[in-house]
Specification:
Length: 310
């Protein structure tokens, strides 16, 4: 029998997966978290750690039994082996949803889009990505839409927040564990960029799960728009009491990308920092009434404090 308030989270120790876990608990859900070392995870009220691997279909199907939602927030670390791992993992979630009747929730990205869709990204904007990673994201969404299972996809700009993850903020602009004397800025001055504060993003997902939704429900989250390409770095400077800003040396990636997978993937994403990008959230606001929104300075301070940067 399916419960209306039990969710399986794949990727509960990651940035968005961890924040969605927190948001679901606040909204009265019980959470099952699949982990390859479940016995080593700390006990937490409302969370049941389940031994298993998102790459093993039987593990995912068994863990999803009786759930109402499957949060698919798992990604290979460091962008390694995306071609071999990402699509099989989403197929495992689809199999689990088909068996349990649960809705799959996918935190989406702007990687799906190419320059022809910019600057304002709507849910129906054309998806012609310029990168391999973007093409994989498009294929993931296609398989979800065609699967016949209920799906919720919410697309976001670049993540930042208290939980470290694979994002520019904690993986490039600052270094967790030390007060930044300098900030490595990937943006281009005069170019608007969209950021999503992880707790706000997770709150939106949790709130949407409590609304009546179409079988395939798709939304965009506006988040924080860095209007001139310098607002995020300025917020970090205010939080830490000043720090020098260095612009990211994109030219170095051209030299090293052939030898390092992570740098190759970063190089492919440069186009996302060279043109205005904004997310049209009117559809989301029409359903929720308002988008969860923490003021930028508060969000940045909270993030840096949690990352032990201040």
């Amino acid at each position: 029998m399916r419960s209306e308030r039990i969710a399986l989270v794949l990727g509960a120790t990651g940035g968005i997966g961890g924040e969605v876990t927190d948001a679901l608990l606040r909204n009265g859900w019980a959470v099952r978290a699949l982990h390859r070392r479940a016995a080593s995870m700390p006990a937490r009220r409302g969370v049941t750690w389940i031994q298993g691997d998102a790459m093993v279909r039987e593990d995912v199907v068994a863990a999803a039994t009786g759930t109402a939602a499957i949060i698919h927030a798992v990604n290979p670390p460091g962008y390694r082996n995306w071609n071999e791992l990402v699509v099989p993992m989403v197929e495992n979630s689809i199999a689990a949803a088909q068996a349990s009747g649960a809705r799959i929730v996918l935190p989406g990205t702007i990687y799906n889009y190419g320059p022809d869709a910019f600057p304002l990204l709507r849910e129906e904007s054309p998806q012609r990505p310029r990168t391999r990673k973007g093409a994989i994201r498009v294929e993931m969404e296609r398989r979800l839409r065609d699967s016949g299972v209920p799906v919720l996809i919410v697309r976001f700009g670049d993540f930042f927040g208290p939980k470290p993850g694979q994002n520019w903020f904690s993986g490039g602009m600052v270094k967790p564990g030390k007060k930044p004397r300098s900030i490595l800025d990937p943006n281009t001055r005069g170019v608007a960029h969209s950021w999503a504060y992880l707790p706000d993003a997770a709150a939106a997902i949790a709130q949407l799960l409590d609304k009546p939704l179409d079988r395939v429900a798709l939304f965009h989250f506006a988040g924080h728009v860095d209007r001139d390409g310098g607002e995020m770095t300025a917020a970090i400077q205010r939080a830490v009491g000043g720090a020098r800003v260095w612009f990211f040396p994109w030219f170095v990636l051209r030299l090293l990308a052939p030898f390092v997978t992570l740098l190759r993937e970063m190089k492919e994403m440069r186009y996302l920092w060279r043109t205005d990008i904004r997310m049209d959230n009117r559809k989301l606001v029409a359903v929720l009434g308002a988008e969860p929104h923490t003021p930028l300075d508060e969000a940045v301070r909270t993030s840096l404090r949690a990352l032990n940067c201040i």
